Structure formats: C-alpha cells, structure tokens
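Morning!

As promised:
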Amino acid sequence: GTRAYGYTDTLDAEHYAKALRADIRAGLTSTPKSTAPTWFYDARGSELFEEITQLPEYPLWRAELGLLQLHAGDVAAQTGARSMVELGSGSSTKSKLIIEALRPTDLNYVPVDVSADALHQASAQLVRDYPGIRLHALRADFTAPLVLPALPEDGPRLIAFLGSTLGNFRRPARGPFLRGLRSIMRPEDFLLIGADLVKTEHEMTAAYDDAQGITAEFNKNLLYVLNRELDADFDPDAFDHVSVWNSAESHIEMRLRSRDEQLVKVRGLGLAVHFVRGEEWITERSAKFTTDGLQAEMANAGLRINQAWADPNAGFTLTLATA
Ligand code: AVJ
C-alpha cells in the first residue's frame, strides 16, 4: 500500500551494522568499557523508554511536557516556523504540542530517530491525527552529520531537540555538535533545546534507577541487542544495573556491573571480552545542565539565545535560539 508519509533510511542494515560494530569493538576494548546509548533503541528499547517516561522517579519528561503545554504557543509565535525537524523524536508525543501550535496543515514535519519502529508508529499516528501535515520521517543517527530531506524553502524552520537528549553528548562533543546544527540553519531558522537541570544527587540517581526496575531492563536490553546483532552470548543475569552521579563531568552514568569474572564471546566481532568481578561498563552518560552553562555552550557555538523557560521547580529548561 502507499504510505501517507515519506521515509528515508540512512541507517540501512549495512550502515547500522558498520556503526554498531565500530562502536562496540572500540567500547568493549577500552578501559573503562564504554559504549554509545544509540544501541538501546530497538523496538523493545523504544518501548521501555516510553515506560520510563511515565515513572514517578523520572520527572524530567513531565517537566518538559508541562513547559511545552505552557509555551508551545510562544515558540510558534516567535519562530513562525513552517517546518520542524525533530532529533530523537521517539513517539513524537510532545511534538504534537508544537505541531498544533504551529498549525499542522501544510507544516513540514521531519522526525529523526534511530528506531524504525518508533518512526513508523509515530508517523502513522500523526498523519491520521493531522491529515494536512507533510511528514517525512528520517531514520538517522544524529551523532553523525545530519543530511536533511529536501524541505521547501518557504518559511523559517525549527529544529527541536527535546528530552535532554543533548545530555548524551559529553561536554567536549557538544560544541562541535551544536556548531554542526548551526551550520545547517539559515538566518531565519531556530533551534529549541530541552535540557534537564542539575538537582540533588539522590533525585538524579533515582531517575535512572527506579523501584520497578524498568530502567534496569532498559539498560540490559543492550545485551539482547548485542546478542542478536553481533551473535554475542551476554547473560543479562550476570550483570547488575548501576546509576552513578559523576560530579566532575556533571552527568549520570548508567553502568552494567559484572557480577563475577567472566569471558563473553562476541562472535560477530571475533572478540572475547573479559570482565573482572565487579567491573563496570558505562552504557550511557546523561549530562545535567545549569541554565547559564547551557546558554554559554550555545553562545560559544555561535547561537543567539532568544528566550529560555524553566519550570517552577527549575528542574528543566527549554531554550530557543537562532543561528
Ligand atoms: C532519552 C537520553 C534523554 O538520558 O534521560 C532514560 C534516556 N536513559 N533513562 C536520558 C534514559 C535512562 C534519556 N534520554
């Protein structure tokens, strides 16, 4: 049948496999072991992340939703955007608030995500909800330079990077990443960034170690992905989920701690990976920001801040900037 939306896959099987192999080989042969969070998001991982967003310990998702409920209208008024590109769009739940404020009819919406399943589910729903929308889904890894599908020249564009996903970049990588985004923006375009703010250590670590164990399952989903994609033999029960605050780097680290000494075969890489008892493998870094620090980083990347909004508890900020 015909799809009511466009779809471009820049992460076809070959590209995905190549990037996965390179990252996992480098990450599991370095000290400490450390891999990219990109690989969490197969269909199951995307589902688990959706469950995380509803957890009482994970208030950042709701804080951003609240900010968008209050300020999507301001974003629409300030930008007048007729195209919106969203990096890490996932289920596009929050995008709907911006889409409605921008008015969906003839709006170009480009959700960008690594999960094909998440993109198709969200896109099918959006074209049902907004028959006049022009939707072109892009499966891409936005940690690599972004090549956008052709967009009409008419009207300003808004690049939205929500959910504090910017925090998955480490501090030294954020400058080049933001400069890269700025380089694809025209003078009339805008960038909207949602970022989680530093709070008490307990609040921050609990957000990545919930009582129900959903985040632990999300973390261990990486092992299932590697077993399937790289013919590995990770035993999820041989690892514990860990959430630690790294104050020097201002980020949360999710780790997998090896319960015992073990040797794991990753046949697809021809690799045998040794873990000592208690060794911790960093599977995700999630930076927490200050409003001033984030604005300084954006300004250093050549962006000009239009406005920043924070929720009443100052737990989260939305920052709007131009190129
Ligand atoms: C989607 C990257 C913003 O870092 O908070 C949630 C992912 N990992 N719980 C985050 C995540 C564990 C999330 N981001």
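DSSP finds nine helices and 13 strands in the chain.

Hope this helps with the figure draft.
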